Give the backbone structure.
Amino acid sequence: YGDAGQKIDYVFKVVLIGDSAVGKSQILARFARNEFSLDSKATIGVEFQTRTLVIQRKSVKAQIWDTAGQERYRAVTSAYYRGAVGALLVYDITKRQTFDHIPRWLEELRAHADKNIVIMLIGNKTDLEDQRAVPTEDAKEFAQKDGLFFLETSAMEATNVEDAFLTVLTEIFNIVN
Ligand code: GDP
Ligand code: MG
């Protein structure tokens, strides 16, 4: 049962991964609380946040896990990935390096997570279009080759954040039903 006493039909664990400062914590803040902060502190303490939503008349509790500054390569432990049925793999469209690191994150994800995990590649910070360093087409092509969903978001302007989570959660829902 949820916080408001409502019946919960499903709990889906989704993990956020990607380099430091790409906006993972702000994407989560936007989705879970509809908040955004420009001087977001490195996440400490809180391991996950939840939001309950309705998908095809069932109530689904999304339990979204956020890394607490463990973004160094291989510092994210297998406990983080355990039981995850979805993953948002985030890079910053203004920082080419964060996109170049995506294959590493994918490799780590595939090594630790369930093989049927639903993965969405996310290019964040589209509000900074004038500083774009990663063409949309490059990411789209990469995602297509690897069978990932793909969206560009702005946690700041709340663009596509809801869509990204809903796509992943609905896909998971369809797999278990
Ligand atoms: P994390 O290390 O991946 O969790 O990144 P944070 O969520 O802490 O964000 C890092 C910095 O980028 C913070 O200063 C955020 O305010 C900023 N940021 C996050 N999302 C966006 C966005 O969509 N647009 C812009 N302009 N800045 C963002
Ligand atoms: Mg963070």
Remarks:
- Residues 56 and 170 are 9 Å apart (CA to CA).
- The mean pLDDT is 92.
- The pocket of guanosine-5'-diphosphate (ligand 1) is lined by residues 20-26, 37-38, 40, 43, 124-125, 127-128, 154-156 (CB under 6 Å).
- Helices lie at 24-33, 78-81, 96-100, 102-112, 136-146, 161-176.
